Amino acid sequence: MKRWPVAMLTVAAVLSALCGGAATAGSRWGKDYFPNVEVVTQNGERVRFYDDLIKGKIVLISFIFTSCTDLCPLTTARITQVVDRIQDQIGKTIFVVSITVDPENDTPEKMKAFADAFYKGPGWTFITGKPDDIRAINAKLGNKSDVATDHRNEIVLGNDNTGEWARNSPFADIENVELAVRDMDPAWREGHFAPMAALAPATDHQGLTLDREPGQVLFKKICAPCHTVGVGDRIGPDLLDVTVKRDQEWLKRMIMNPVRLRAEKDPTLAELDARFQGVRMPYLGMSASDATDLISYLATKSAEIADLRAQPEATHVHRHDDAAENHDHGGMVPSNP
Ligand code: HEC
């Protein structure tokens, strides 16, 4: 407890104010707390919620519904970034569980298509099941609303062995979410009680210096979980040269409101939809000036990459920099440049 990072303590303190302390450290959410009901995974397997998914594990739990057009795809893409960073533990000590908040509509098949758009490795289970059972699980985790769109966009972190549970935000810096997850493991904690600042990678704040493009910070936080520039398709298409390929006005409308564009049956978007199954670019609340900043960033970035590719000597060093910026991390990029 003493060694918890400051960010976690703050989250715990805020939550104990909000929820009467239900999810603060030390509370025992264990065998007798969670419904041990049967749930169905994205692969159609029937498992017991507590016995098979929680018992003896460190877990990161998120709440989604597959028809969600705003935050759930972004939340899930950010968890993908965390999972990329904990490859050494995922499926071994740390497990991710994404629970639907819309069990009436989210069949295992829909959960599978959604899951596959984000991650195909071990250690991450997407679950649905009988509506009453799923709602009971959600309620125990703090999601009491019956309306899917009202669900919390928080994540819950827990260690069933120690009984420590906390809430966190998938929109915090990815490094901090990674540390908060790792910090659930007392063995890891033993070796890592350095201050958070010392643990954060040195590249962390690179994107925040003022001489950078204004769209860059926005891109890193909101778009990079799904898109790269010049590194390859990820959850969404690679955006290298998209400003050349597409009309400026179309790009602006796409960034500001892809949901409306889709409703209008835009043929370019229909083509992209066919290529990227299981996930749709969400509505992210971008204003016209955000969109302009982002487009300008994408144009500058593409031009920089074209320059670098014209000078093979420098390519290696700068590629690494690109990867760090695009993904919040240096490795585990699924596609090749
Ligand atoms: C949850 C994942 C996700 C996030 C977050 C996201 N996108 Fe997308 N994006 C997609 C997908 C998937 C597509 C492909 C179209 C579709 O099926 O919706 C796409 C398509 C696009 C396209 C069209 C690409 C082309 O080839 O024409 C642009 C431009 C774009 N996104 C920009 C952005 C920007 C800018 C942001 C950040 C503000 C962003 N996206 C955030 C998933 C995402």
From TrEMBL:
Composition bias type Basic and acidic residues, residue spans: 315-330
Binding site for Cu cation: C68, C72
UniProt keyword terms in alphabetical order: Copper, Disulfide bond, Heme, Iron, Metal-binding, Plasmid, Signal
Disulfide bonds: C68-C72
Keyword Iron: yes
Region described as Disordered: 313-337
GO MF assignments: electron transfer activity; heme binding; metal ion binding
Signal peptide feature range: 1-25
One protein family per Pfam: SCO1-SenC
SUPFAM superfamilies in the cross-refs: Cytochrome c, Thioredoxin-like
UniProt domain Cytochrome c: residue ranges: 210-302
Similarity comment: Belongs to the SCO1/2 family.
Protein name as catalogued: Electron transport protein SCO1/SenC
Organism this protein belongs to: Rhizobium grahamii CCGE 502
